[in-house]
Structure formats: C-alpha cells, structure tokens
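User: Second chain of the day. Same drill as before.
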Amino acid sequence: MSDSAPRATKAVIPVAGNATRFLPVTKAVPKELLPIVDKPVLQYIVEEAAAAGLDDVTLITARGKGPIVDYFDTRPDLEDALAEKGKDDLIDAVKAPERIAEIHTIRQGRPKGLGHAVGRAASHVGEEPFAVLLGDEFYEVDDKLLPRMIDLQAETGGIVLALIEVPEEEVSRYGVASVEATDTPDVVAVTGLVEKPAREDAPSNLILIGRYVLPGAIFPYLDRTKPGSGGEIQLTDAMDAMRANGTPVHAVILRGRRYDTGQPVEYLQTLVELATRRHDLPGFNAWLREFSATLD
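Assistant: Same format as last time:
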C-alpha cells in the first residue's frame, strides 16, 4: 500500500467511435451529443467526472466530432440573442457546459481501439494517475462510484476497475472478472479478466463497466500492446500485462443504477426513465401511463 500516492485529478473520455448502431443520425451528429431530453449524454459524463474532483477532462475525438468541441465552447452570439429577449434562464443553460470542467481535445486519427485512444492522452496526463470514462454510459453522482475508485487507487497505487452484477445468462456479452474478496465491502481484488466467455466458463457474474482509474505507468504498456481482439489495441490487454508484472488490480462493485446508452434500446430506456423524473415536463408521466396501457 502507498500512503502518499497522488490522487487522480484528470479524466480521459474517448469519444472517437463511429457509433454505427445509431446510423444514419450519427453520420452528422456525434452519438455522445444525443439528448436525454435537452442535455446530451456526454454532459452527464463530464458532470460525473467533475463531481468526483476530475475537473481536467480530455476528450479523445476524431474527424466529424467537431460539434462536441463546439458544445463545450462559448456561444456569445446565442447568449446576446437570448439576452435581448430576456431569457436569462436559457442563458444559464447555454453557459452551463463550458463551466463544468476544463476541456481539452486530442484527435485519435485512425480508430485503432480503446487502448490506442487512451494512449493518445499520454502527453497531457503524464505520469499522474487518471480516470477513463467511456462515453456511452453514466452513473448517479450520489452513488459516488468514481470518488470511491479514486480513493482506492490512491491507496493501492494500482489499477481500479468498476464492476456490476448481471444475470448469469448475460455474461457472454461482456468482459467478466475473476475476483477475490477483500476486507472492504464491495471492493474485490481482480485476479483475471475474460472477454465474452460462454456462460459455463464465466468465472463470475461480475462484468466490467466503463470506468477505470489507472496509474500513469500504463502508457508504456499501451505503447507496447499489439492489436488483439478485433484487430484493435485493447486497454484490457495492457491492464492484464501490468497485472502480470505485479501491479495490483482492484475493483469497486457498483450497487446503484447504470445508465447505458450504447445501443438504441438502452438509450431509449435511459431517456424515458430520466424524463419521468423531470418536473418541467407536465403531463408526460400521465401520457406514458396511458400509452403503456395500449401496448401488448
């Protein structure tokens, strides 16, 4: 254990994917900007990072992702137009994204996998620990998943993952962890990772979800990692190489809600669930109840 390990203060969010499941809309609109009513998925993720003290955020972008950069930039022309109409509440909403965190962008260039995308942040992150947040899922800030992961990484100096339990029949869709219990509730030591195992071969029903806190020492491993599954440079391969060389790997098991927007059905479920919580959409819940009653 390391009592004086630095804490992660930077986040890396890969947003360079083509999002083919959402074509044709993602031909022109980045998937990360698809709205949950009136706030895009990516804003929820950046807010989650900032709430955990990660106020330095690097977005790994690609060609066609310019609107993401624009979204977190200022719009004085729009602000002036709204001010002329006395719409101060909307001015605050327009300004909100630029105030969440300090945003940096780095182009990935060619899509060579998650490991390659994370590796592109090396020049900005340096040797510090940092968090990686995948761009199609987010979590309740009140669950404090990221803060717990950051605390654990500072304590161990190693790799910290996030896991969630799924029904056994679903494990073949995910990366699955083999784990050993620790003395801390909902914290486990990770002894291995298996990508999309058959149900009978899965070491557990704990799957890897899109949050990682990593030491800066992972970057040389990413540089040496050869293309693996799908012909891409896999972050999992680099992490497993570090584990084999003695880097401790732990995980926090999430007991809260995961909002996954990676596929159209999951995106729609997230959209509807969060819309039902809004108090500024009068009549929506009543309409939803009536409409649901008409479904088979």
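The two ends are 56 Å apart (CA to CA).

User: Great, on to the next one.
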